[in-house]
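Q: Could you fold this chain for me?
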Amino acid sequence: MNDAFRKLFSQMMEQGQEMARTFNPALENFSATGLDKMFPTMSKDMMEMWFGKTFNREGLDAKTRLLVTVAALTVLGAQAEPQMKLTIRHALAAGATKREIAEVIYQMSMFGGVPAMTKALEIAQSVFDEAGETKGDDA
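A: Sure. Below is the predicted structure, expressed as structure tokens.
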């Protein structure tokens, strides 16, 4: 990170903290860590309705849309960990297997690089572990 970007980022963070203080002083020290665990996964029917064929009958099903989202988040460097975890949980609930999720992430190494793939795989494994699933192939 160069100095100009560091300064801009610092200014943005200060402005964000000032806005939080203005809206609600208690938000000044808010941490989003673990926030993703407060939102349960949607039922398969609900995911299909919102992300699947209800609004786009000729389009992709919910599982495919979620796998595409995993791919996009991986290419972005897997920097949005809460979003990645939530999307992987939703993909599992929509019928994706651990193997399919891992294959999508592996494929994205060609576009996002090996570090992004590695981070995404670590995130995926943490979701698999949280779900109580064992390592291995479940194709």
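A (continued): The chain has two domains: 1-30, 34-130.
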